[in-house]
Amino acid sequence: MSAGTFTTGHVGPGAVPRLMELLRPEGVVAWVIAVAVWPRFEPVLATIGLDVLHQSIESIRCDAPPEAVMFVARLR
């Protein structure tokens, strides 16, 4: 589970493959990924072998515009 990590100036999509090596098959990730960096994460996540359980763009602050992708997936 991660929130506030995958955003501008923080951990980038290059960390995803290594994180997936640490996850057991059938393990679940629940991440909040900033909309600003989502286009860089989406193609990496598509190559990992994940079953997406939930993906939506949401506000993370009260009365704010949508600014984060809520991403939940299971490793095959």
Biggest sheet layout? 4 strands, mixed
Q: How many structurally independent domains?
A: 1
CA radius of gyration: 12 Å
Q: What's the average pLDDT? A: 96
Q: What is the third-level CATH name, the topology?
A: Rossmann fold
Number of helices: 2
Structural write-up:
- There is one protein chain.
- The chain is of the alpha+beta class.
- It has a single domain, classed as Vaccinia Virus protein VP39 (Rossmann fold, 3-Layer(aba) Sandwich), CATH 3.40.50.150.
- 21% of the residues lie in helices and 38% in strands.
- It contains 2 helices and 4 strands.
- Strands 1-2-4-3 form a 4-stranded mixed β-sheet, covered by helices on one side.
- The longest helix has 9 residues.
- It is globular and about 40 Å long.
- The relative contact order is 0.27.
Summarize the structure.
By secondary structure, the protein is an alpha+beta fold.
